[in-house]
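Write out this protein's structure.
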Amino acid sequence: MIWLSIALLSLLALAPAAIPLWRRTRQVRDERSAALALHEAQLSEIDRDLAIGLIAPAEHDIARLEIQRRILVADTAPAEAADAISPTLVWVALGLIPLVAVGLYLTNGVPSLPAQPLGPRLVAQHEQNTKNDTILNKLKQTLAQLPADDPNLRQGYLLLGQAEASREHYAEAAAAWQHALDLSFDPEIAARTGEALTRANGHVTPEALALFRKALDAAPKDAPWRGAAQARIAQGEHDQDNP
């Protein structure tokens, strides 16, 4: 069944290229046939004119040579066009495209891979989210029980903030990183906290603006995030000046 689908999709994909090529080939043939028919009619006409005495034999010979020359030009014009872009080569190339695609699929793909419907994937994602919630809740409980002078407390809040940010729970990430900042200030963590607050609220809040400024003041000159922090500060100041 999959091969039939591949064949149908290949035909649909190649149709936009194949149809104009087929029309062009037929058009060239029609133009050639029309030109040859016209010149043959002209030959018959000058023969008739000679027979009834409308033109002299010398004029007839000159006209006949000219028409024969035009017939030769019309007869060879399609061949010259074909030399530029051979329709046969184009058709062969179009036919090779699906074959190459199938070859690449068989080489790099997994034809035996079973289908993955959306429903089961959503269920699996929900189960994974539930597991993550359980793990993070346990981490929060553990951190809440640690004494303030425990060296693992700050690292735990940093990990919690990173986990929440990876799930796009920016408000929770900002709260976790703020706990880490309260224990020990770090300019990069301050910038991350400001960014999380900004994403959680959809704009640069006053709290986020203060964090960006404080982070920038304490940041090394070569900090890679300085430009992003400066941009957020400019955005926050603009929002304050234009409420």
